[in-house]
Amino acid sequence: MYRSNTCGELRQSDAGKKVTLAGWVQRARKMGGMTFVDLRDRYGITQVVFNNEVNPALCDKANKLGREYVVQITGTVAERSSKNAKMPTGDIEIIADELRVLNKSLVPPFTIEENTDGGDDLRMKYRYLDLRRQNVRSNLELRHKMAFEIRRYLDSKGFLEIETPVLVKSTPEGARDFVVPSRMNPGEFYALPQSPQLFKQLLMVSGFDRYFQLAKCFRDEDLRADRQPEFTQVDCEMSFVEQEDVIEMFEGLVKHIFKYVKNIDFTEPFPRMTWADAMQQYGSDKPDIRFGMKFVELTDLVKGKGFSVMDDAELTVGICVPGAAGYTRKQLDELTEFVKRPQVGAKGLVYVKLNADGSVKSSVGKFFSDDELKAWGEKMGAKPGDLLLIMSGKAIPTRKQLCELRLEMGNRLGLRPKNVFAPLWVIDFPLFEWDDETQRFYAMHHPFTSPKPEDIPLLHSNTGDVRANAYDIVVNGTELGGGSIRIHDSELQDTMFELLGFTKERAHEQFGFLMDAFQYGAPPHGGLALGFDRFVSILAELDTIRDVIAFPKNNSGRDVMNESPSPIDDSQLEELQLKLDLKAPKA
């Protein structure tokens, strides 16, 4: 037996017990005739004492221990004379009488502590060391607990967990597929699933009326803080349901997890907002409603005053920042530079200060009178001491740019605390989105999303106005999950494919097995998928999902620890009957 106890469980009530511990040396320090070793395992840290007067040979051995050595120590639990209230085991220590080095360690490239001196790249290269840190480990422990609690909750609601294939057919709509060549079928490829969408619908046809899965999904897309090439979603589907049934079920799940993890009770229904209102008021289909600063349109007040930026604009819209009229010229210049960044893409920013003394100062004061500027403030509900930030241009990009500015102001003013949570549902999405480049409609969600029944007559006459039976759940400006009621009628599905530009042959080639299944009595069904990594990161109050994934990829999609992706042997390419044509990148 390597240990009788863990390094996190012993307390003052254990004093006098003979115990054996095993773990890693966090640190060792010599003080006079005593050597103190902090021994760490997954469960905590325990202080071990070696007395040079009692056992000089053992103390000398302890003095040679290095950081991260793996050791086994036997000794007696004793009450500490100088207690450490910051440690759960801070009331006791182990008086050692045996020490066995199980394995030595090189000096680690960074300190294995909560406030480490290792940068992101270094910690990712040595991720197996990074995972020894308590704050990183606690994220994975939270992930584990949430996964079990989600399973328990869904099981209590009659859901069955069913695994679906990982090697599937490529359906190149939306994000790019990761593809896998088949050795047994030369020239043919599997794809890794972007989601189990088709299979969970087939399970509904099969009569499994409540399915879920903690499903691994894969998308070959550019990465960011809340995106990885492989991720996990809580994937669910239900038969004989309408939109309200799905929303009620999964709002219950989300509330349950908030209570379980954070002891937060959401007693009222989550607010709901249509997609059109979200875009008009926040410039985003995933608005952060922890703070105000809703958009107010000023187009009718600003045109015809000789300021060409606003005269020629499709939309002029602004936000009122409470109490920020004291912003300095330097701070306002910083905001202007912020909106000009490529990630935002605006050409400039107009400000109006409504000073506490009733005076007005604006970057467009020579084009507009004080009374006109005050009228802007009245329309925006501003008070003396507030700051108006205004942007002009084409409607859609201007709203998106102002959204970025609103979030930046929320950050600057401390209005987006990570320990405050504001969930909502966004509903009534458009069914289609138009692409100017290809001059065709695309499905905003996926081709199997049902239109609102009352909008079905508009499918051919006013295609762009058709609303989807779709819904997203948003928390703090992050899309936590989304879903829809699916099309279960073959004729309506054919119409959908037609409007999306699929020929009958192409639709059957890609989705024939699902369309065939619908001929055998498909029930009405719908579902939802929650981003599990995102859910864990939100409740852990983190900025990125990388910190809740054991072995994540970096922003280039690389695992710098195991150095993947990497070339494969020529013999493997030969087996797959593949040849590489690595063209030089364009200058």
Total beta strand runs: 22
Mean pLDDT across the residues is 94
Characterize the main sheet.
Answer: 8 strands, mixed
Beta-strand fraction estimate: 15-25%
Overall geometry comes to globular
What is the CA–CA distance across the termini? 63 Å
Radius of gyration computed on alpha carbons:
30 Å
Continuous helix count: 16
Structural class per helix/strand content? alpha+beta
Low-confidence stretches: none
Helical residue percent band: 25-40%
Strand order within the widest beta sheet: 6-9-10-22-21-20-17-11
Report on this structure:
The chain is α+β, with helices and mostly antiparallel strands. The protein is 28% helix and 24% strand. It has 16 helices and 22 strands. It has helices spanning 56-63, 120-125, 127-130, 134-156, 197-205, 243-262, 275-282, 299-302, 308-311, 329-340, 370-379, 395-412, 490-499, 504-517, 532-539, 570-575, and strands at residues 18-31, 34-41, 44-51, 70-79, 92-103, 160-161, 179-181, 189-191, 210-218, 230-239, 272-274, 296-297, 315-321, 350-354, 360-362, 386-393, 423-427, 432-435, 440-443, 470-475, 478-485, 525-531. The chain has an eight-stranded mixed sheet with strand order 6-9-10-22-21-20-17-11, with helices on both faces. A five-stranded mixed beta barrel has the order 1-2-3-5-4. A five-stranded antiparallel sheet has the order 12-13-16-14-15. Helix 4 (134-156) crosses helix 6 (243-262) and helix 4 crosses helix 15. The model has no long low-confidence stretch (mean pLDDT 94).
